[in-house]
C-alpha cells in the first residue's frame, strides 16, 4: 500500500474515533441525541445491540458489523441493518469480530439508551406479565413474573419427611434482579403516548405508594417480587408494569380497585399459606399494619388451620411414602402441597365485588347460591364471576372468622383447587370433591377453568383460567 494512502486512512480512523462514542460490553449507556450520531461497537464474538427510547420520538437506528469507516444509514450499504422498534424497543444480534458501528438518524432531541451484551438483549419487552393478587378500595397486591425456580428437594425413603404444617418463610435467593413497579391509570394520556420502555416509564411518576416490597415464594412457579400498594383511588382502572434492572419490562396487567364502600382488608405473606394474597372478611387490621400477615392474624383462625394440616400430614404418612407408590406421577409431597393449597383457599374466604355495569362488563353478581351447575349457563355472551352475596346476618364460610357486621360477597374457590387434591392424594384418605350434578356450584366456581361436565376436560371451561391480565377474576384459585 502506498504510504500516502495509509496516512490518509489513519487520519480517517482518528477522525472517526473522535466523533463516535465507544460502547462497553455488558453495559447500558444513556444518550440524548439532537441529530445523527454514531457509536463504536467493540470487537468481540457474537453480540446483541439493543436500544430503548426514553421519550416519544421516531428515530431510526442502523448497525453494521463490517470492517469499514462508513457510518451506517438509511442509504444502505454493505452489511448495514436497521434495528426496527416495537413499543420503543429494538435489538440486533450478530458477529462483531472486527467491531462495528451503531448510528441514529433523528430530527430533534431524542433521549435513548443503548445496551451491548454477549448474553442476549439488555433491553427487552418480556412475554411474561405481572400477576395481580387482589385489590381493595385503595390497596393492591401485585407480583412480578417468576424470576427464580422453586428449589424443592423431594423427600426420599426411609427418611421421608414432609414440610411442617406451620412453615416459616424460606430464604429468598441470594441474587435477584432489581425490580421496580410502574402503575398508572389506564386512561392516562401520558401512559398511552409513551414508549413502553424502562427508561421512559421510570421517568414518570408511578401512582400509589409502595407499602412493602419483598421476594415471595407464592407457589411452585417460583420466586416472585411482591408489592403491596396503598393510596390508590377507589373504583379506578389501573395498568401496571414490572421493570427488571431498569431495562426489561413485563407485559402489562390491568386491574380495578374496589368501590369506596368495600370493607374487606387484604391478607398476604403467610408462610403456612403462601398462596393467600387477597381480601378476606375481617375487620381492619391494627392501625400500624397495611394488611393482615403472619404477625397479626388472630390465633382463632391460624391454629385450627395448622392443626388440620398437621393431622392430615400424620394420616398421609401412614402410607409408606417413597417406598410404595400409589401413583406413577404424583407423590405424598405433591398430595400435601395440594391439600395445603386447598385448605388455605377454603379457610380464608375471599371477598369480591361485582364489576360496575357497562358495555365492557365481563363479570357481575352471580345466581342464587343454591343454584347448581355453571353459573353462566344462561348468559352465552357474559361470564359471571362465582360471587355469593353474604347478608349482614350470614355466618362466615369459615366459622373461625368473626362476623363482619356488614354485607359483602364471597368469591367461591375454583373447583379445580379441590380436584387437584383428589388427583394427587392416595385413595385411602377418602378425599372427595363435589360434582356438578350434586350441587358443586353451591360451594365452588364450576366450569371456569375446566369444562363443567363430569369429565372436566382441562382448560376447556368458559374462561380457561381463574383470572386474566385484564383484571377479570372468575373464581378463587388460591
Q: Please, how many domains?
A: 3
Shape: elongated
First-last Cα distance: 75 Å
Q: What are the segments in which pLDDT stays under 50 over at least 5 consecutive residues?
A: 1-18, 357-367, 369-381
Helix content: 10-25%
Average pLDDT, all residues: 88
Q: How are strands sequenced across the largest beta sheet?
A: 1-3-8-5-6
The total strand number stands at 23
User: What is the CA-based Rg, rounded?
Assistant: 28 Å
**Secondary-structure element pattern, one letter each:** HEEEEEEEEEEEEEHHEEEEEEEHHEEEH
Category from helices, strands and their pairing: alpha+beta
In what range is the share of β-strand residues?
Answer: 25-35%
Q: Main beta sheet: strand number and arrangement?
A: 5 strands, mixed
Number of helices: 6
Amino acid at each position: 500500500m502506498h504510504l500516502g494512502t495509509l496516512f490518509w486512512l489513519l487520519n480517517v480512523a482518528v477522525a472517526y474515533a473522535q466523533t463516535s462514542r465507544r460502547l462497553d460490553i455488558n453495559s447500558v449507556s444513556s444518550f440524548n441525541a439532537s441529530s445523527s450520531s454514531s457509536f463504536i461497537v467493540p470487537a468481540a464474538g457474537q453480540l446483541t445491540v439493543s436500544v430503548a427510547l426514553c421519550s416519544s420520538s421516531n428515530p431510526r437506528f442502523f448497525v453494521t458489523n463490517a470492517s469499514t469507516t462508513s457510518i451506517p444509514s438509511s442509504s444502505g450499504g454493505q452489511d448495514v441493518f436497521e434495528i426496527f422498534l416495537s413499543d420503543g424497543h429494538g435489538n440486533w444480534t450478530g458477529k462483531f469480530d472486527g467491531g462495528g458501528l451503531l448510528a441514529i438518524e433523528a430530527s430533534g432531541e431524542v433521549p435513548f439508551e443503548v445496551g451491548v451484551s454477549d448474553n442476549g438483549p439488555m433491553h427487552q419487552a418480556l412475554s411474561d406479565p405481572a400477576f395481580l393478587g387482589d385489590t381493595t378500595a385503595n390497596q393492591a397486591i401485585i407480583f412480578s413474573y417468576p424470576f427464580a425456580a422453586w428449589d424443592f428437594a423431594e423427600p426420599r425413603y426411609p427418611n421421608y419427611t414432609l414440610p411442617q404444617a406451620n412453615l416459616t418463610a424460606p430464604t429468598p435467593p441470594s441474587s435477584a434482579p432489581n425490580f421496580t413497579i410502574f402503575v398508572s391509570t389506564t386512561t392516562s394520556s401520558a401512559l398511552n403516548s409513551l414508549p413502553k420502555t424502562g427508561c421512559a416509564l421510570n421517568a414518570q411518576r408511578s401512582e400509589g405508594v409502595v407499602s412493602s416490597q419483598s421476594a415471595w415464594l407464592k407457589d411452585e412457579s417460583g420466586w416472585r417480587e411482591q408489592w403491596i400498594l396503598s393510596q390508590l383511588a377507589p373504583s379506578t382502572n389501573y395498568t401496571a408494569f414490572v421493570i427488571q434492572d431498569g431495562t426489561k419490562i413485563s407485559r402489562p396487567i390491568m386491574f380495578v380497585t374496589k368501590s369506596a364502600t368495600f370493607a374487606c382488608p387484604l391478607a398476604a405473606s403467610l408462610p403456612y399459606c403462601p398462596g393467600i394474597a387477597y381480601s378476606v372478611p375481617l375487620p381492619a387490621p391494627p392501625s400500624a399494619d397495611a394488611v393482615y400477615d403472619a404477625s397479626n392474624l388472630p390465633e382463632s383462625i391460624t391454629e385450627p388451620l395448622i392443626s388440620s394440616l398437621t393431622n392430615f400430614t400424620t394420616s398421609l404418612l401412614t402410607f409408606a411414602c417413597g417406598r410404595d407408590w400409589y401413583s406413577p406421577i404424583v407423590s405424598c409431597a405433591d398430595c400435601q402441597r395440594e391439600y395445603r393449597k386447598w385448605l388455605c383457599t377454603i379457610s380464608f374466604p375471599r371477598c369480591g365485588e361485582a364489576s360496575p355495569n357497562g358495555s365492557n362488563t365481563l363479570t357481575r353478581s352471580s345466581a342464587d347460591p343454591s343454584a347448581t351447575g355453571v353459573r353462566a349457563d344462561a348468559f352465552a355472551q357474559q361470564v359471571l364471576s362465582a360471587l355469593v352475596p353474604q347478608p349482614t346476618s350470614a355466618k362466615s364460610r369459615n366459622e373461625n372468622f368473626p362476623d363482619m357486621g356488614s354485607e359483602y360477597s364471597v368469591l367461591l374457590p375454583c373447583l379445580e383447587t379441590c380436584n387437584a387434591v383428589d388427583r394427587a392424594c392416595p385413595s385411602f384418605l377418602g378425599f372427595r370433591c363435589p360434582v356438578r350434578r350434586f350441587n358443586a356450584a353451591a360451594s365452588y366456581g364450576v366450569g371456569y377453568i375446566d369444562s363443567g361436565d363430569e369429565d372436566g376436560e382441562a382448560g376447556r371451561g368458559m374462561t380457561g383460567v381463574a383470572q386474566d391480565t385484564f383484571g377479570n377474576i372468575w373464581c378463587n384459585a388460591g
